[in-house]
């Protein structure tokens, strides 16, 4: 069985806000990297750093010992791995490993894993958390579901992109843990937004408020990273509303199946729906504060997105 070392050829499909810096970390760790993305500029940028480019996912996968993807939703993940003329799995070598870093439904992860197993290929669903900041710093948390043997083999690759790498169970369980993460992230985003709106309307300085709240029990990643963006009226995305809404739809589907009461999550899902309805779905999730401001009667306009 192939041992994963820096000589292993790694493929990376999907070079967006998260994928591009993650692939960059692989290059800096010494892995030979082949990349493919729908957008050409990030491909060109990584090629200038030493990566090679592939014309399509199948061409990439045929050359790689381990193939990674970081894609926006179930439909694209299924198309890239299984359902297109240039799909990844049919092109992969037996004994190789596939890893999807996207957030998709557990059912999608299990479907790909089953097809991979039938072809003699190992597959891990390993969604990540930490946002754009974590991807750029190489400090992401990765939650992997699938065979432990495959996880152990892939650990040097995953470790080049993240700080905390966990094996959490069988196929699909990485996605389940990521959905639990999104519950906490979204509810915390509401708490930060409400606290800062309350402080501002009381006449408090938001920078001072953040300094105080971040130092005590109210402190959180969202308070530190997204609270400061709210104070600066910066709604550029580290993680877009439309992607969080996609994740929350998956959460609510799983919650209905499990009969889990998610009252706070359901409320936030509806509040984000306002931003989608207003054409602001490409803003960062800190734009939740705009919804609260509008409910308070305060005109709240976001900057135009590119």
Strand order of the largest sheet: 3-2-1-4-5-6
Shape field: globular
Distance between the termini: 47 Å
Number of helices: 13
Please name the CATH architecture of the largest domain: 3-Layer(aba) Sandwich
Find the structural class using helix and strand composition.
alpha/beta
- Report the sheet-strand fraction: 5-15%
Q: Helix coverage percent of residues?
A: 40-55%
The count of β-strands is 9
Q: Please give the radius of gyration in angstroms.
A: 20 Å
Low-confidence stretches: 1-6
CATH topology call of the largest domain: Rossmann fold
CATH superfamily of the largest domain: NAD(P)-binding Rossmann-like Domain
Order of helices and strands: EHEHEHEHEHEEHEHEHHHHHH
Mean pLDDT: 94
Main β-sheet description: 6 strands, parallel
How is the topology of this model organized?
Elements: E1 10-13, H1 19-28, E2 33-36, H2 40-47, E3 52-53, H3 57-62, E4 66-69, H4 74-83, E5 97-100, H5 106-118, E6 122-125, E7 128-129, H6 131-137, E8 140-145, H7 148-159, E9 162-169, H8 173-201, H9 206-215, H10 221-231, H11 241-258, H12 263-277, H13 288-295
Helix pairs in contact: 1-6, 8-10, 8-11, 8-12, 8-13, 9-10, 11-12
In short:
By secondary structure, the protein is an alpha/beta fold.
